[in-house]
Amino acid sequence: MKTKIYINPAFSHLFDFIRQVPDNFENSGELLHTGRNEVRKVSISGQDIVVKYFKRITWANRLIYATLRKSKAQRAFENSRKLIRSGINTPMPIAFVDIYKKGLLYQSFYISDFIELKPLNELLEQPIGKSEEGLRAFAHYSYKLHRLGIFHNDYNLTNVLYTQTNGEYDFALIDNNRMEFRAYTKRRGLKNLRRLNLPVDKLGIIGSEYANDSQSNSFRTLMTMLFFQIQFKERKYIKNLFKNFWGNNHQLKKQNVN
Fold it and tell me: What whole-number distance in Å separates Cα of residue 187 and Cα of residue 54?
């Protein structure tokens, strides 16, 4: 068993806690999310932090992340530092912990600061009368990210947090392990919006503001956004069909063997 720990020097005082994260995770703090990954909020030395456990790793990825690619935890840490250097708000990265067993990635944890912001879907899924200004602010924020060459590859309404003060909106990015930093093109920017699960009227507001910022035609901008959304949903549907087909066939074979 081999353990790789990297700690942001500003949080070196948390070393003893961080090295025990793998052993204590299941019984620590408050559970915020569970699914493919598990997220817990923990208070340590008067500070609230978030520990994310990437608990579902395929056997192929266990090998890939041990040999060819950085783990999700390490990428989340490094991408978050890049965002902060670019002036983009995100929870301060504290550490990552990767554990290897028999040459494969066995466990992976990412630790960050906790920020008291709300998921953006709580705002943008409200009726337009209550969400229009937020939609416009989010469009400007998205264009700013893209012009900076920042493309979050899971850019959806739960991976963007927001706060509103005196009518002004501030945003922050989370789940930063899947990101690209590359040159801006309008096509690349609009494609990055394909995961926004919103009705056409709300997408129209985002598209209109994005078009204004990029000095483009509003109608063409919206049509391009819709094209990428439809394409994304079709590919996701086909992928799920194959997964279900493979899973059902595998289950039938197991039953036949038994």
Answer: 32
The count of other CB atoms within 10 Å of the CB of residue 153 is: 13
Please check whether residue 202 is in contact with residue 136, taking contact to mean a CB–CB distance below 8 angstroms: no
115 CB-near residues (< 8 Å, 6+ apart): 89, 91, 161, 172
Read off the pLDDT of residues 6-60 as tens digits, 9 standing for 90 and up. 999 999 999 999 999 999 999 899 999 998 899 999 999 889 999 999 998 888 9
Contact status, residue 180 vs residue 153, Cβ threshold 8 Å: yes
Name residue 10's amino acid: A
**Closest-CA residue to 72 (of 176, 180, 181):** 176
How many CA within 13 A on the CB side of residue 117?
A: 25
3-state secondary structure the chain: CEEEEEECHHHHHHHHHHHCHHHHHHHCCEEEEECCCEEEEEEECCEEEEEEECCCCCHHHHHHHHHCCCCHHHHHHHHHHHHHHCCCCCCCEEEEEEEEECCEEEEEEEEEECCCCEECHHHHCCCHHHHHHHHHHHHHHHHHHHHCCEEECCCCCCCEEEEEECCEEEEEECCCCCEEECCCCHHHHHHCCCCCCCCHHHHHHHHHHHHHHHCCCHHHHHHHHHHHHHHHHHHHHHHHHHHHHHHHHHHHHHHHHC
Q: 88 to each of 79, 115, 141, 174, 208, how far by Cα in Å?
A: 11, 14, 10, 11, 23
Whether residue 253 is predicted with pLDDT greater than 60 in this model: the reply is: no
